[in-house]
């Protein structure tokens, strides 16, 4: 409720500024605290004391001015001015109780579906003929959480999986696929590659060492770009094999991407020539030593001159930037995006800004449509260095998930021996995926992130198992009470401090979810759920539920039920499953 009072005070000060009763440049410091002694109300602020000078009023006069202009709110029962100019607030716990009751009756748990934008979310984006690795994990997990949050607020969300499915490497990949099919005597359209990594490595190695092979590969690149049917079929095969692999990983992780969401680099191929010509014609791009270049004064090269961004090479080839220019244009023109959110690691920041500067100059996407880079740092090992296998290789996502399950299985065998083997397996898998996802989601994404098995699987601290356990524990209370959690409805009586604190946290759910959508920051929801669990534990310790009198018991069960529902729904928005027993 502190925040609600701060909001009320902010609104009052804004209004007083508009009425010129306070200086318009006043940067008021507003602090609201719990009172030590209930005879001074529930909350108090010293705002009139600390802002007296810049506001140009004596403290008590300023306090009076604010109290007189406070908007009507059911939240505040009464106010008083105390001592040198403190303002005390007496809160209306009836109001809080009714807020919680409304929330308990709402299908969305109080989430207001007031957003109706077309939002394109660019995330995951692995490359064809390569296995997904740790480098894709952050984009995939964070992007998928944001997609769920945006949809829950009423938006129409378009998932865009911008896979790397185009480029000169496809010549050698096609040649290699062809040979493999020949050796095995099977139709190349029926080959499946168990190990994409070694396939890619093999192709590259042959390209570098075998001149005949390289020649054939280069010929295939030209044919593929020219629309040759055979090369196109082979290319399609490589894409399909990769997508099948990736889909298994997505399904295993509970990531909501499907093959329908693939909008890879190849999709924009046909737009590239037209865009480069258009930019040339309009003088935005120029020919420079045979290449086509856009000089951007917004970016300086190392000599302090406008930076040249190449959009077509001397040999006629296009670049990653050209594709992202076309891609932004397509998302606005064809997908009718109001907002585009890119979840890509921070090393690509300059690349995106350059592509978008060109897009804006050309007027391909109006300023009213936001293009947002939600960048994140790298995944590091415990030693603070990039996360690698013991032998220094890239960690495949598949291997990482296997290890998570193995570790969770060991842990559950010890902890939950009361469960059947089948249940144990189910619990272990759910916890494993949750732990990997939550460890990433719960850190502010802008910084590098240290991947630490022990931390993420711990049952205490801000972890998935802790939150899942909090949920399972509430389910156990309901089993014991013989009451259905989903259906329990009762009116609330908020008498204890811990009940009020829990109720206040509960009603903040909608706000937090909106913040996550605005900022693209799922850790805000993680922190909220973690605090909610903590407040529930304090409540549970201080306020006996099952032994209380009927109406108090019903009220406390209501708080518990709503806490469980918010935990489950909040975790679901993060792409994390809960368990009723663990
Ligand atoms: N495939 C790229 C990579 O692995 C990421 C693509 C991100 N999206 C984009 N529109 N550029 O680095």
From TrEMBL:
Residue span(s) of domain DALR anticodon binding: 467-582
Q: What is its EC number?
A: 6.1.1.19
Give the reactions, separated by semicolons, that this protein catalyses: tRNA(Arg) + L-arginine + ATP = L-arginyl-tRNA(Arg) + AMP + diphosphate
Q: Does the keyword ATP-binding apply?
A: yes
Q: Name one GO biological process term.
A: arginyl-tRNA aminoacylation
- What keywords sit in the KW lines? Aminoacyl-tRNA synthetase, ATP-binding, Cytoplasm, Ligase, Nucleotide-binding, Protein biosynthesis
- Tell me which positions the record assigns to the signal sequence: none
CDD domains from the UniProt entry: Anticodon_Ia_Arg, ArgRS_core
List the SUPFAM superfamilies hit by this protein, alphabetically.
Anticodon-binding domain of a subclass of class I aminoacyl-tRNA synthetases (SSF47323), Arginyl-tRNA synthetase (ArgRS), N-terminal 'additional' domain (SSF55190), Nucleotidylyl transferase (SSF52374)
Q: Which residues cross the membrane?
A: none
Q: Does the keyword Nucleus apply?
A: no
At the top of the EC hierarchy, this enzyme's class is ligase
Q: Motif range for 'HIGH' region?
A: 126-136
Q: SMART domains, alphabetically?
A: Arg_tRNA_synt_N (SM01016), DALR_1 (SM00836)
Q: Name one GO molecular function term.
A: arginine-tRNA ligase activity
Please name the Gene3D superfamilies in this protein's record.
Answer: Arginyl tRNA synthetase N-terminal domain, HUPs, Isoleucyl-tRNA Synthetase, Domain 1
Q: Spell out the subcellular localization from the entry.
A: Cytoplasm
**Cellular component, GO annotation:** cytoplasm
User: Arginyl tRNA synthetase N-terminal domain: which residues?
Assistant: 3-91
Check the record and name the InterPro entries matching this protein: aa-tRNA-synth_I_CS, Arg-tRNA-ligase, Arg-tRNA-synth_N, Arg-tRNA-synth_N_sf, ArgRS_core, DALR_anticod-bd, Rossmann-like_a/b/a_fold, tRNAsynth_Ia_anticodon-bd
Summarize the subunit comment.
Monomer.
Q: Which family does it belong to?
A: Belongs to the class-I aminoacyl-tRNA synthetase family.
Q: What is this protein called?
A: Arginine--tRNA ligase
């Amino acid at each position: 409720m502190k925040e609600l009072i701060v909001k009320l005070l902010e609104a009052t000060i804004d209004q007083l500024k508009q009425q010129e009763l306070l200086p318009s440049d006043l940067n008021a410091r507003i602090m609201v605290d719990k009172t030590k002694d209930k005879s001074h109300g529930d909350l108090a602020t010293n705002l009139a004391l600390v802002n007296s000078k810049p506001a140009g009023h004596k403290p008590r006069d300023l306090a009076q001015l604010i109290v007189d202009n406070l908007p009507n709110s059911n939240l505040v029962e009464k106010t008083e001015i105390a001592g040198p100019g403190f303002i005390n607030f007496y809160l209306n716990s009836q109001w809080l109780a009714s807020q919680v009751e409304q929330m308990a009756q709402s299908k969305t748990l109080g989430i207001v579906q007031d957003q109706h934008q077309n939002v394109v979310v660019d995330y995951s984006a692995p490359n064809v003929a390569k296995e997904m690795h740790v480098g894709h994990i952050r984009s995939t997990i964070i992007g998928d959480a944001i997609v769920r949050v945006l949809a829950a607020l009423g938006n129409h969300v378009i998932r865009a999986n911008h896979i790397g499915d185009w480029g000169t490497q496809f010549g050698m990949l096609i040649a290699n696929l062809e040979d493999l099919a020949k050796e095995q005597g099977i139709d190349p359209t029926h080959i499946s590659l168990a190990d994409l990594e070694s396939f890619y490595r093999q192709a590259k190695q042959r390209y570098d060492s075998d001149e005949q092979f390289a020649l054939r590969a280069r010929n295939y690149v030209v044919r593929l770009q020219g629309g040759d049917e055979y090369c196109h079929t082979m290319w399609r095969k490589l894409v399909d094999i990769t997508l099948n692999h990736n889909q298994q990983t997505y399904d295993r992780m509970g990531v909501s991407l499907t093959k329908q969401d693939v909008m890879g680099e190849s999709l924009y191929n046909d737009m590239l020539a037209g865009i480069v010509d258009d930019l040339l014609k309009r003088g935005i791009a120029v020919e420079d030593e045979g290449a086509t270049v856009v000089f951007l004064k917004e970016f300086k090269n190392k000599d302090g001159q406008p930076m040249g961004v190449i959009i077509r090479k001397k040999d006629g080839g296009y670049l990653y930037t050209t594709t992202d220019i076309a891609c932004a244009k397509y998302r606005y023109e064809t997908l009718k995006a109001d907002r585009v959110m890119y979840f890509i690691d921070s090393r690509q920041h300059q690349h995106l800004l350059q592509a978008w500067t060109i897009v804006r100059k050309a007027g391909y996407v109006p300023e009213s449509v936001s293009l947002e880079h939600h960048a994140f740092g790298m995944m590091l090992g415990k030693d603070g260095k990039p996360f690698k296998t013991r032998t220094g290789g890239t960690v495949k996502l598949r291997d990482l998930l296997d290890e998570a399950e193995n570790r969770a299985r060991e842990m559950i065998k010890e902890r939950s021996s009361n469960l059947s083997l089948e249940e144990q397996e189910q619990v272990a898998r759910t916890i494993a995926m949750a732990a990997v996802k939550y460890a990433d989601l719960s850190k502010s994404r802008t910084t590098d992130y240290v991947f630490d098995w022990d931390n993420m699987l711990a049952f205490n601290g801000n972890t998935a198992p802790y939150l899942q356990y909090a949920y399972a524990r509430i389910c156990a209370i309901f089993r014991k009470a013989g009451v259905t959690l989903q259906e329990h409805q009762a009116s609330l009586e908020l008498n204890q401090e811990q009940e009020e604190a829990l109720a206040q946290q509960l009603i903040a759910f909608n706000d937090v979810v909106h913040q996550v959508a605005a900022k693209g920051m799922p850790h805000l929801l993680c922190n909220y759920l973690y605090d909610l669990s903590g407040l529930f534990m304090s409540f549970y310790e201080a306020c006996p539920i099952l032994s209380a009198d009927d109406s108090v018991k019903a009220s406390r069960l209501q708080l518990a039920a709503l806490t469980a529902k918010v935990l489950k729904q909040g975790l679901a928005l993060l792409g994390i499953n809960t368990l009723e027993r663990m």
